[in-house]
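User: I'm writing a short report section on ligand binding and want a predicted complex to refer to. Could you take this sequence and magnesium ion and write out the structure as tokens? A short remark afterwards would be nice.
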Amino acid sequence: MTRLHLFDLDGTLLHRSAAPVEISRQLGLDHEITELERDFVTRRIDSRTYAQRVHGLWTGLTERHVAAAFDGAPWLRRIRDTWAEIRNRGEYCAVISLSPLFFVERLRAWGAHAAYGSLFPRVPFTEPVDPAGILTPAAKVEIADLLCAHFGLTRADCVAYGDSLSDADLFDSVPISVAVNADQHVAALATHSYTGQDLWDAYELVHRAR
Ligand SMILES: [Mg+2]
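Assistant: Sure. The structure tokens for the complex follow:
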């Protein structure tokens, strides 16, 4: 059986952090992003409002900041090893994140077959953010379906890795899911649960269960 492994980014591949937090830190906006994250996590604002506000914060953002945020982020260990193993088995791995595509797409260089994220204007920003390009949690399932079609697979072949309620729809639509560093509520929605900082160990839970 060929599988498609679908990885969330924020809180999953990134340990207790998120791409916008790492980017904002590079700009000295720690306080501002903490407030914004809190509004998003408590669902006071949706992903489109979040994107518009974060776009407003990042007026001084350059490619250099994005690269520094990516390089300095608290990644789980052995992401590249795990994806190389998946590729060697003839399986597929993809990242689906609500975070900016200009950050998420850098993971293709680490071995992801595909990387999906929210579409922001080019950095440095000279254009407004288009709400239509910002992904929602529901879009994660739509993108999973697109990827299945692309690789000649179905939802029955998918494994989802995620940490939060924004992964709940995806967990519901696939047979195998791994809650990564998730709270008990989210872990209860998944078939496996992993706590730690090594992606290989999370992947092994699925591999061993075969
Ligand atoms: Mg997440």
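A remark for your report: Residues 4-15+75-208 form a domain with the Rossmann fold fold (CATH 3.40.50.1000). DSSP finds ten helices and six strands in the chain.
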